[in-house]
Amino acid sequence: MDEGIDSGDILSQSKIKIDYKDDARSLYNKVISMALEQIDEFIPVLRNNALNTIKQDNSKANYWRKRGEKDGQIDWRMSAEAIYNLVRALTKPYIGAHFIYKTQNVKIWKVKEVKSNSYKNFEPGKVIKTYFDASFLIKTGQDCIKVLECDLKQKIKAGEYI
């Protein structure tokens, strides 16, 4: 460790495969599992004073400001893929992606990409269909998103814009 932000030598490093269906929770669990494996490998090396560190390549470093609530607001002009990735990145245990419906800030926890050319003349943000299970289909900038889990307290109707 040093005084910088994520700038010290690397003590252990492993790659984790991120699958299409991974979300914040499943990825968090993968990271914990990998970290526990690394600790098991790292402790004996540390005890034997056989620690080999790797210098970080600072030319590849980047920093991002603290994320704010606006960063999680869905812009329906984005592609269905981008919205899918935003939702899965911000789902529980994090604060959730969100949209405004009437006066309610609605958190979205799970969505599904829906590839379709049937709705290409619809405007992004239009609710195309509602389903019996309270899920609904929304037109995005490219393709559609089916909202599977959210904190919507009102019934949304097909034809509305969000």
How would you summarize what this structure contains?
With 162 residues, this protein is α+β, with helices and mostly antiparallel strands. 22% of the residues lie in helices and 19% in strands. The protein folds into 2 domains: 1-64, no CATH class; 73-150, Formyl transferase, C-terminal domain (Methionyl-tRNA Fmet Formyltransferase, Chain A, domain 2, Roll).
Structure explained in plain terms:
- The chain has helices spanning 24-47, 80-90, and strands at residues 97-101, 104-114, 127-130, 136-139, 144-150.
- It is an alpha+beta fold and 162 residues long.
- The chain has a five-stranded antiparallel sheet with strand order 1-2-5-4-3.
- The mean pLDDT is 91.
Based on Cα principal axes, name the global outline: elongated
Name given to the CATH architecture of the largest domain: Roll
Structural class: alpha+beta
The average pLDDT score comes to: 91
Along the chain, the helix and strand elements come as HHEEEEE
Number of domains: 2
**CATH structural class of the largest domain:** Alpha Beta
CATH homologous superfamily identity of the largest domain? Formyl transferase, C-terminal domain
Q: Low-confidence parts lasting 5 or more residues at pLDDT below 50?
A: none
Q: Figure out the total of helices.
A: 2
What does the radius of gyration come to?
21 Å
Q: How are the strands ordered across the major sheet? A: 1-2-5-4-3
CATH fold label of the largest domain:
Methionyl-tRNA Fmet Formyltransferase, Chain A, domain 2
Helix content: 10-25%
Distance between the termini: 46 Å
**Share in β-strands:** 15-25%
Number of strands: 5
User: Sheet bearing the most strands, described?
Assistant: 5 strands, antiparallel
